[in-house]
Amino acid sequence: MNCLLEEGKTFVVPRVGFDRKGHRLGYGAGYYDRFFASHPAIPRIGMAYACQEVDLIPMEAYDARMDYVVTEDEVINCR
User: 15, 19, 44, 63: which one is catalytic?
Assistant: First the structure.
């Protein structure tokens, strides 16, 4: 895990669903949200299929947004 904390590293996050604002549905354990809360400078890239996109994912205050979402069709800038 230490290699992820080096400058210039990126973290790739799987997702169940996403919207174009960088909100995501994960697997419900909150692992990624806690990791990003303690490492806010690491860029966040979500990986998903285009068919997993929805109009809006509701977010709580502790939910971590993605900077980008990569699908088989495009790279979405969520910043």
Answer: 63
